[in-house]
Amino acid sequence: MSKHIGESTVELTSRPRISSWSATAGQKENEGPLGHTFDLILDDDLLGQNTWELAEAAMLRDTVRRCLDKVKLQTTDIDMLLSGDLINQIMAAHFCARELSIPFLGLYGACSTMSESLALGGMLVDSGAARRAVCAVSSHFSTAERQYRSPLEQGGQRPASAQWTVTGAGAALLCGKEYIPEAVKPAAALTHATIGRVVDYGVKDMANMGAVMAPAAADTLAKHLRDIGRTADYYDEIITGDLGKVGRELMLELLSEKGIKFDPKRVWDCGARIFSPEQDAHAGGSGCGCSAVTLNGYILNRFAKGELNHVAFMATGALLNSTSVLQGETIPGIAHLVVLERDLK
Amino acid sequence: MSKHIGESTVELTSRPRISSWSATAGQKENEGPLGHTFDLILDDDLLGQNTWELAEAAMLRDTVRRCLDKVKLQTTDIDMLLSGDLINQIMAAHFCARELSIPFLGLYGACSTMSESLALGGMLVDSGAARRAVCAVSSHFSTAERQYRSPLEQGGQRPASAQWTVTGAGAALLCGKEYIPEAVKPAAALTHATIGRVVDYGVKDMANMGAVMAPAAADTLAKHLRDIGRTADYYDEIITGDLGKVGRELMLELLSEKGIKFDPKRVWDCGARIFSPEQDAHAGGSGCGCSAVTLNGYILNRFAKGELNHVAFMATGALLNSTSVLQGETIPGIAHLVVLERDLK
Fold first, then answer.
1. Which residues of A touch B131 (CB under 8 A)?
2. Cis peptide before B242 (omega within 30 of 0)
3. Which of A62-66, A146-150, A289-293, B64-68 has the lowest mean pLDDT?
4. How far is C-alpha B50 from the geometric centre of its chain's CA atoms?
5. Quick one: which of A84, A159, A164, A200 has the fewest CB in 10 Å?
6. What is the CA radius of gyration of chain B?
7. Chain A closest CA to B106's CA: distance in Å?
8. Cα distance between residue A108 and residue A105, in whole Å
9. Closest chain B residue by Cα to residue A326
10. Beta-strand relationship, B237-241 and B188-194
């Protein structure tokens, strides 16, 4: 049973458990600082498929399967799959869902989709609508480049504020308390979700997504803390994704302007952390897969090891399409936040 | 508090109420048999905007506002907006949400989005996560033609199985029982939702969306009846959208093959009904807006007048994008079903 708190926050009173999690990533991601935390590294980022789009769908499907295999569940044990990606009309999610045959809810939140799916999945499991739900998202460097940017063959120079789309997929299994598979120890419980609104500060530069998303991230975090009556230091870590280095700095500035006190060492960004400075990824990683693999690798592994107790996870999205950019429109952003708590019961 | 029933159905035990509803449509839709049921007909399908995309966003935003105005609510009275459309990266929904500033959940279910949003919104209101939620979707003939099909200027001939994208937007306000505005009489209660899975029968013809969606519709309806232990004749009407004339015939055939007994006069399709045969729309209407305006005009008005008691509303979606079609992929389909019951309390 959920409880609406304040302006935009929902308390998930039954504390849905993240009972399995899995991350798949590409070679470049493997070479970054978080590479050792992913379950599977792709040898071939085409996965033997004929197109990048089918490759992304196959990566997402295999990640969901691995997430279920880990706790010996079948697709038929899952009531709902909540999923989305960046390809037009979320093609990867649909082609993945076609093979898995789990009742499917298609989401689009750009790079915020990992936390959107956890927020929605958490609410559905909390209410009893779903006993078990899988939240899964992906992105692929080559499908994103084809769709959003100059052809790779053109070899255009990337500005320092640009981010690099992560090739990766993450899946998390949410279970109601009575539906946790036997002998499985969940990594964390979902206790709250704060649903973001669409915020637009007038940025038009699609090579500066960090600046687009930072205001939405600051807005959602400020609202979350106010709704729930907590200060930022309640959280061991506040993790955003994927603001990148430029966006992270802007968000910290905006938080300070709003009078929010925080320890900047405990506020970090998936996009700023996934690649090392030597990897030529400029402002960092992006794409739904960026926060998804960081959550379903690095973050949840640390929960499982007992290294984390309270985390605010907030994936962020830039809400553009190629038409809106060509038409000269500004780019709005969004951020959704979920609270992960170590599950001690 | 929700209850998962059978394979894919959720019972919404608190019966969220549809407390306001609004539909906006274009001139061609106004000239069809349902024209008299829409709240507003567009004089200018650009709505004074510079682009079709901004026009669609403005239409969607104004439809949500009108839905709230009717029951004297402000946007700040709404906990969540669940919305989607057909433009890449659901641009209309995002640009609409940017102005409304309601906490936003972006959905993509192609033309099934009206029932996807009602299913999700219903579950969120049922659980207490949202006290009031607005479910709103749109489509626009000119944004869809630009994105999915040959340029209009080319004047290519449309096959008889082709459908015509509806210019229209629909919005429905869902309220928890204690949050129905004073003196407002809801049209209907949402009692069940059946979440569809992605089904693919191998159709590749994007001018025959009815054939793509019919198997998904038959699958979801069959599952719904089995989950809930009802026969089709429980429902006054079973309403699909937007299979069109070709898809409707195929669905009826598939239902008969599955051994489901029904009265074909009580199973009708929004796409097949929205235009008259003289309107040169071939197999009928399509687009998220097709089922949305039919629901938020014709169907809910009839509930309000006491002409309907039990309805299964099932919007259907064809899950293609322009890349997948060019790559020669088959087109999967999906259908979600919600049950509307006359609210006698």
1. 4
2. yes
3. A146-150
4. 27
5. A159
6. 18
7. 5
8. 10
9. B51
10. unpaired
CA distances from A4 to A339, B82, B173 (A): 15, 16, 17
Q: How far apart are CA B262 and CA B272, in angstroms?
A: 18
The percent of residues in chain B predicted with pLDDT above 90, rounded, is 92
Coil, strand or helix at A55: helix
Burial class (CB in 10 A: 0-12, 13-18, 19+), A157: exposed
Show the tokens assigned to A328. Answer: 């000269």
Percentage of chain A surpassing pLDDT 90? 92
Query: Quick check: A128 and B199 CB within 8 A?
Result: no
Residue recorded with tokens 């205001």: A215
Q: Give the gap in angstroms from C-alpha B251 to the nearest C-alpha of chain A.
A: 19
Rounded to 5°, the CA angle B324-B113-B185 comes to 175
Residue with tokens 């919305």: B83
DSSP characters over B130-182: -SEEEEEEEE-HHHHHHHHSS-GGG-PPPPTT--EE--EEEEEEEE-GGGSPT
Q: Is the dihedral of CA A79, A85, A88, A93 positive or negative?
A: negative
Q: Is B259 left (phi over 0), alpha (psi -120 to 50) or beta?
A: left
Q: Return d(Cα B316, Cα B92) in angstroms, integer.
A: 20
**For residue A220, what are the CA distances in angstroms to A90, A230, A255, A315, B310?**
25, 14, 10, 11, 40
Query: What pLDDT does residue A151 have?
Result: 66
Q: How confident is the model over A90-131, as pLDDT tens digits?
A: 999 999 999 999 999 999 999 999 999 999 999 999 999 999
Locate B265 and state its tokens.
Answer: 């006069």
Q: Which long-range contacts (CB under 8 A, 24 or more apart) does B259-263 make?
A: B260/B221, B260/B222, B260/B225, B260/B232, B261/B231, B261/B232, B261/B233, B262/B232, B262/B233, B262/B238, B263/B232, B263/B233
Q: E strands along A63-122, which residues?
A: 80-84, 104-106
d(CA B243, CA B260): 19
Is the CB of residue B136 less than 8 Å from the CB of residue B113? no
Both structure tokens of A132: 């078990």
Q: Which candidate, A135, A238, A179, A222, places its Cα nearest to that of A15?
A: A179
Find the angle CA(B180)-CA(B185)-CA(B188) to the nearest 5 degrees: 90
| A41 vs A51: CA distance, rounded Å | 19
Q: Which two tokens stand for residue B123?
A: 């579950």
| Nearest chain B alpha carbon to A337 | B103
Confidence at B150, pLDDT banded by 50, 70, 90: low
- Residue B308 corresponds to which tokens in the numbers above? 């309907």
Chain B residues with beta carbon closer than 8 angstroms to that of A334: 94, 104, 106
Kindly give, in sequence order, each residue whose CB lies less than 8 Å from that of residue A283, ignoring residues fewer than 6 positions away. Answer: A160, A161, A162, A163, A210, A244, A245, A246, A247, A271, A272
What CA–CA distance (Å, rounded) separates B137 from B82?
8
Question: With an 8 Å Cβ cutoff, are B53 and A324 in contact?
Answer: yes
Contacts of B95 in chain A (CB under 8 A): 324, 329, 332
Closest by Cβ to A323, choosing from B53, B107, B195: B53
Residues B271-298 pLDDT 10s: 999 999 999 899 999 999 999 999 999 9
pLDDT at A177 over 90: yes
Q: Which residues of A touch B79 (CB under 8 A)?
A: 4, 8
For chain A, the straight-line distance linking the first and the last C-alpha, in angstroms and rounded, comes to 19
Task: Determine contact, residues B140/B286, Cβ cutoff 8 Å.
Answer: no
